[in-house]
Give the backbone structure.
Amino acid sequence: MEKRYYPFSSYLKKTFNKKVYKITLDGGFSCPNRDGTISFGGCIFCDETGSYSRCNNVKNSVQMQIKKSIEKLTKQFKAEAFMAYFQSYSNTYAPVDYLKQIYDSVFLDDKIVSISIGTRPDCVDNEKLDLISTYKYPWIEYGLQSANNKTLKLINRGHDFECFRRAVIETKKRNIKVCAHIILGFPNESKKDMLETAKKLSELEIDGIKIHMLTVLADSPLAKMYKENSFYLLNMEQYVQIVCDILEILPKTTTIQRIAGTGFSETTLEPKWVNRRFEILNLIDKIMIQRNSYQGQNYTNKKIS
Ligand code: SF4
């Protein structure tokens, strides 16, 4: 079925004229919000894995991770083109020489057509961005989670919205595409707050978005909070309605990289429905049809310079 939003897979197909498979990599990085530079506890929803790559891990070099993934995907799907995605922790959190070495190693295989680097907005600077801009079709994925500074404080992000905004502007100046990660359902946030985050992202004309439902992971500080004083978590219908509102607010050009995930059922305490990926995706399609709405329908074209 034709989607009423702009899936990332369509962007990849349009850009490279073939299906591009993502290879998730673990570059062995850490995170300043976990190692004590900013804090020891990390963001309250994060567990010790720091959203790690479940396909690859640092026991293998980046080159070896790529080799094994390409072999597997080629055998399984006859895949021909790949995007290297550094997922775990903060993948720009190292000296620029070291980053160059790691990122360069990705492109030793010419089937890698693009690179995407997940990081925090306070872990980039001009030198690092200049380096990243030299690679083929570069993307940076910034964790924001919410544009509300009170929420950012509550969840112990260690940076504010201004920091994110500055990073996005500097990144886009260098023609590096930006994907933002946000989380819906923080206990202090109303629907209005969540839509305000979407509005601020649309003003920045971000190139991609990953939307997550707040999940309580075992061993995260949030799990402790939840056990001590359980707070309300959105149900699937509420989550989906807000996702549809967000899609309507974002520009048509923003690629939708994630609106439902599979998660890790064994470490997800609540809500259990987040693992029902296809049900969530189908409900989003259904609600967009019921509303007769499309991505960008409520985009106001107010640009932040
Ligand atoms: S920045 Fe990422 S890795 Fe670091 S604590 Fe927060 S969610 Fe975890």
